[in-house]
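[User] I have long wanted to understand how a fold can be written as tokens. Those tokens are not coordinates but codes from a learned vocabulary of shapes. Could you go through the record with me and say what the backbone is doing? Thank you; the sequence and its tokens follow:
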Amino acid sequence: MTVSAHIGYVGRSIPRLEDDRLLRGAGRFVDDVDVPGQLWMRVVRSPFAHARIVSVDVSAARAAPGVVAVLGGEDVREVEPIPLRLEWPGYELEPFLQPVLARDKVRYVGEPVAVVVAETQYGAEDAADLVEVELDPLQVVLDARDGIDPDAEALRDDRSNEVVLMQKGYGDVEAAFAKAAHVVSAEFITGRHTGVPMETRGLVADYDPGRGRMTIWGATLVTHYHRRVLSRLLGLSLNQIEYRPTDSGGSFGVRGDFFPEDFLVAYLAYKLGRPVKWTEDRAEHLVATNHARQQRYEIHGAFDAEGRLLGVRTEIWHDKGAYLRPTGVTVAEITLGILPGPYRLPAYDAKLHVVMTNKTPIGAYRAPGRYQTTFARERLLDIAAAKIGIDPVTIRRRNLISPDEIPWEPGLVYAGESFLLDSGDFTGMLDKSLEESGYHEWEQEAVRLRSEGRLVGNGIGYWIDKSGLGVYETAGIEVDPSGKVRVLIGGASTGQGIETVMAQIAADVLSVSPQQIEVVYGDTNLIPDGVGSWSSRSTVIGGSAVQAAAEATVAKARRLAGQFLEVAEEDLEVVEGRVFVRGSPTRGMSFGEIAAQNDTVTAMRLDEDPGLGARKIFVDKHMNYPYGVNLVQVEIDPETGGIEVRRAFCSAECGKAINPMLVAGQAAGGVAQGLGGALLEEFVYDEDGHPKATSFMDYLLPTALEVPPIKTLLLEDAPTPTNPLGAKGMGETGIIGMGAAVGNAIDDALQRAATVHTLPVTPERMLALLDTPATE
């Protein structure tokens, strides 16, 4: 199918369509949803990290004014734990899944123990304080490496705290280390932090007993998965459950799982026959919503005399917290799969311990696995460069996979498929990044400032991502008789601009303005199936499905117009939402007129479906791999240990940027979040497992004062062959290499290698590093 006049919205930085309502305050978030007669739910959470539940006394709470119901773990004992989203053959993961309310034991501070439902929000909060939970404290496990010691406290009876020992690799690692001219070893730790979106979690559920139908409002990345889980846990059919979309104040992946509250709100609405609403406060969010990142690495690299990689061996301890959330061990597997990065690594051997501890469960957060493993790998390269006597850029250039080596498939399998780099120019990306950023001038400036006694340094982090996991996505196009177009997509909005991007893709094919298009997501009445928005897949898979549906819609419009105008299809052109006879622009029909004329009776006669539109499923045969470079310049204050980021740069290979402005925004946001994880954000616990960061007084986020101007470079040199758009997922852009770049820049500022081993580099840690004598 060809369109005669291509308007070309794809590739243009048009303003976000959703911003019109959001900037006018007309957005509708879940806390804006109120249903007549609704009740309010409040969660009673464990104050202990590990304890046996002796009793839960709810009598005083039930007697409180306005209280309608109180539930404890015994009231939902027959409800199965929250299931996994993905299957993991060969792993026994079910014993580590989370119950909807704690029974017998609590395993982290913040675990739901009971819920109170009342007529008012404040009444529910007051009554929740009346629930008396008697707990018998137990020994806690707070370190993943210590947690697999035979003498460690077992968090589950007769089971090791180690859920899985994963092992992956290829090549002859022993031979690589035996012939190495240089062996470099290091230990690295990435701290525990989270995405802290502006909007916390929330849910409104309304069950109609007469119709037997449940309607739910609440932002989720994976609407159709949530619907299936709720159907399973409640015993309702899928057709009885309807999810409705709302706007979303961010997610970054941390809100993507099915949480206990997602069941409890719906369950109470079902049992009580009244709407129930719950909105998470920030203190709850910081102990209950997914945490992320925490990993410890022991990593060894074998290099030849010129600094070329011969092999890598690593052992990793991955702290999963108290339970496996629905993403299971995905982060662990991605960690092992992405560690080799964009480098020519002949031999690789890695093992990873997935360990349960008495902390908030770990889930996905923007660039799960990639942020941590990039920190370890890129720090190892800088340390090796210093030992061998070459500069950090040179050691990367010598090891980057060259274009003539692509496709690169070393024999590593993860996420259900082989690691295959089928497009890319990694050296070209490095050269363009150095030139565009002015990195050589940064280096000269740093040398000058260090000669004046200032601690200024530059750092690089070369990253590679994977995107497009999830196999398929669904999309539909519907044309109204008025000419308005509706795009239906199985993805979700997390504030990333999905409405704009999908409208641009459809507009290009339909030859209409994006302003003429409404994008609908997350509505299970209109969209019967979908995989959702995670793993940077919305554009590459969802957008490809939209493109296919739009192409099918145009093909149908031409077929129908040919029938109605009694003209051969090949004599028709499509321009600005009209189909007309070539050479006779006045003889034609608009899309709206075609949709109106193709009524039910006419459609039967023509053996077509009524109206104008199409539904399509796009299946992605293989993940694609975006890549890029983070560069930063930092200055250390030796008196306070404070670290100022003077400059930040991020490049990314997009394949095809549908909306460059939005991609650049993704990159800038990622850089800011990456700085937070590198310098500020960390969940710490005392010796009893009590969290010490339960508000923004203690959990520190970068503000506009800490984030420097960010320069971005978007390249389209290596379109992916796995989707018709050529696009690579950009959701994790900017964040992946920031921890590595900051760590390397600090080493450069101090002019000594192997200094930074732990993220975040807080002022306290920086002062300790300044007091530590330099080592080899």
